[in-house]
Specification:
three-stranded antiparallel β-sheet; 10 helices; 9 strands
């Protein structure tokens, strides 16, 4: 594989029983890219992530650059409010060093929310994770993914269930993390304005490749119609607002 690329996917296919979920998916990703994956519900976006992570069998080729560390941020973390598990206890499942845990918490922006950083850390670390807000849990999940110093982060719809104000905060955070941590980012999103603002390449997926390339070049009316059909008016409106 060329040293310019950290990932090369060729003719990727995934089947569950007799149901074909993905077919003939091909693309290449360079270091430092932000790649957005868009498509309707059931298009295979999360399945693509699972294949890239090696969680499910597939046909075709997935070739990562050797030695890469990959972090994954799921859509949600389902924890009962009364579960007696603190943020520190949760993060210690992956990292025993408390100083490293505090570092990643600052990296994901908690230190900006309180005037006294030392007080902040003890406050966040000691709180039960089940009572945190949606935005706070999202940051904790990103912190979890950052432990171990990954080279690549995969975000599966990172703002699901979060209000619009928090969404903007999360996406701004992702852009800052890319620069600060020298990350390559994969991002599943339903929001075209986010794709245009943050991604330098987009994979248009509806069980197969509809398009791949810079969003300003490949997201046209024909592509959006193939992806979203009758919902094209909604997505065109979002694009016009940019």
């Amino acid at each position: 594989m060329s040293s310019d690329f950290i990932l090369k996917v060729e003719n990727l296919g995934v089947e569950f029983g007799r149901q074909r979920v993905l077919k003939n998916v091909s693309f290449q990703v360079k270091n430092d890219d932000i790649v957005a994956i868009i498509g309707p519900n059931g298009a295979g976006k999360t399945v693509l992530f699972r294949a890239l992570l090696g969680f499910i069998p597939y046909t075709g080729t997935i070739e990562w650059q050797k030695g890469l560390k990959i972090g994954y941020v799921p859509q949600k973390l389902f924890i009962e409010p009364d579960m007696p598990l603190t943020t520190l206890e949760f993060l210690k499942f992956k990292e025993k060093n408390e100083e490293e845990i505090k570092r990643v918490l600052k990296t994901v922006g908690f230190a900006e929310d309180y005037p006294h950083k030392s007080h902040l850390q003890s406050h966040v670390l000691d709180r039960k994770i089940g009572i945190l807000s949606g935005g706070e849990v999202q940051r904790i999940l990103i912190a979890w993914a950052l432990l171990g110093h990954p080279d690549v982060l995969l975000f599966d719809e990172p703002t699901t269930g979060i209000d619009i104000g928090a969404e903007e905060t999360i996406y701004n955070l992702l852009a800052k993390l890319k620069e600060k941590e020298n990350l390559t980012i994969f991002l599943i999103s339903h929001e075209l304005q986010i794709v245009y603002k943050y991604a330098n390449n987009v994979i248009c997926l509806n069980k197969e490749n509809i398009c791949f390339g810079p969003p300003q070049q490949v997201l046209n009316e024909d592509t959006l119609h193939k992806l979203f059909g009758g919902e094209i008016g909604v997505y065109k409106h979002q694009r016009d607002e940019l």
